[in-house]
Write a structure and sequence with these properties.
The strands form 4 sheets. Strands 9, 10, 11, 12 and 13 form a 5-stranded antiparallel beta sheet that branches. Strands 1-2-3-4 form a 4-stranded antiparallel beta sheet, with no helix packed on it. The chain has a 4-stranded antiparallel beta sheet with strand order 5-6-7-8, with no helix packed on it. By secondary structure, it is mainly β. The chain is built from 1 helix and 15 strands, in the order H-E-E-E-E-E-E-E-E-E-E-E-E-E-E-E.
């Protein structure tokens, strides 16, 4: 519930300028003054027990061939712990019931991994995996992908590549956004450290062809003040990103 409220608060703060006065009560830290709709349902995808990890974050969902997919990063108790891996679960009944979580990407002796999102085409589902070398200073990482035609059997990890063919020298956060014209838009935190920039590609798979866009950011040395973006499209087609503010401005 805390994670859901935090995400809701971030999104609401990003769209406050577009809302009529009085719609949002920012003094109400639990609900922001909003009420649940009558047809709202709560479904549990995964519940930990003594034999599983207990920490989950970076939840991303998609649909592929009439099946819902959910991925998240998983660790024993702490965020970005050395054992952090990526798990996923599936639902064939519109999200009512979910399969037992399966491993999508494992940690190694030299790196851990986090969820980077999905891109689905008619025939192929791609999962993006952020790989974080444990000895990299300042902290940073790379984006890899795996793909499947059935959602069960997955390819080997391959590096996501920029338009010039070089490996994407950063981690993809959050999940990429497919637009109606076929372009995929997102953001990545580039090395050294974590410095955010918008990215886009016209490769429908998202495997390659990425360009780094331009945006004014506030540099804090090892990272930009703007981190962990979320993206939505306004009615007139304008793309808007909201960010986690590392300076609490």
């Amino acid at each position: 519930m805390y994670i859901c409220n935090m995400i809701l608060s971030t999104i609401i703060l990003g769209i406050l300028p577009y809302l009529s006065s009085g719609v949002i009560d920012t003094t109400n830290v639990e609900t922001l003054g909003l009420t649940m709709t009558d047809d709202t349902k709560t479904v549990t995808i995964f519940s930990p027990d003594d034999e599983t990890h207990h920490y989950a974050n970076g939840v991303v969902m998609t649909a592929f061939k009439d099946v819902l997919y959910c991925m998240w990063q998983s660790s024993k108790t702490d965020e970005d712990a050395p054992e952090t891996c990526v798990m996923y679960s599936k639902s064939t009944d519109e999200g009512v019931t979910w399969t037992k979580p399966e491993l999508l990407a494992a940690a190694t002796d030299s790196s851990y991994c986090t969820s980077g999102g999905w891109i689905g085409t008619k025939d192929t589902l791609t999962a993006f995996i952020n790989v974080w070398p444990k000895d990299m200073q300042p902290i940073g990482g790379y984006t890899y992908y795996i793909f499947s035609t059935d959602g069960s059997r997955w390819s080997e990890h391959q590096p996501v590549r920029m338009a010039g063919g070089q490996v994407m020298n950063g981690v993809m956060e959050q999940d990429p956004y497919p637009m109606a014209d076929g372009r995929i838009v997102g953001a990545a935190h580039f090395q050294p450290g974590l410095h955010v920039a918008p990215i886009y590609t016209d490769d429908p798979s998202g495997h390659s062809g990425w360009h780094q866009g331009q945006m004014t950011v506030h540099d804090r040395g090892k990272q930009s003040q703007e981190l962990e973006p979320s993206l939505y499209q306004q009615g007139d087609g304008t793309l808007t990103m909201v960010f986690r503010d590392q300076n609490s401005s």
